[in-house]
Amino acid sequence: MSGFKKFLMRGNVVDLAVAVVIGAAFTTVVNAFVRGIINPLVGAIGTQALDDYKTCLKGPCTVDDAGDVTEGVYILWGQVLGALLTFVITAAVVYFCFVLPLNHWMDRRARALGQAKKEKLTDNELLTEIRDLLAAQRTAGGDSDGGPEGNSPGSSRPRTS
Length: 161
Prior knowledge:
The chain is mainly alpha-helical. Helix content is 59%, strand content 10%. A two-stranded antiparallel ribbon has the order 1-2.
């Protein structure tokens, strides 16, 4: 039971729980923004609710007073557009309000601590370092292969038996 308690109190689990709660609340705010601001802006062109935008794919299409399809097949592209707008707005707010400031803060913190930003190596540079390390190990271990000079796998010289 103590292991389970330790797992729950670990930072990642608590952070994840907080993120889920904030995400749910944030979704409500974004949905209200789309319904309250984006939909009326779109409504200036047509209908106020994006959900009302649809196209009859296979007709004749009829809808009853409640708005339910009674006959035909509709493509409800307004719902997809609304969901897409909600996603894009959510992603933009998360990026500009959370990710960008956090990355900026982490960079400033690293500079304040005197840590140099680690340089990313290209694939070729990384493979060259691995080759050199393997060659050094082979030389240090007294391998009969001939070391880095001789018949190493990366060598351009052919192996002689």
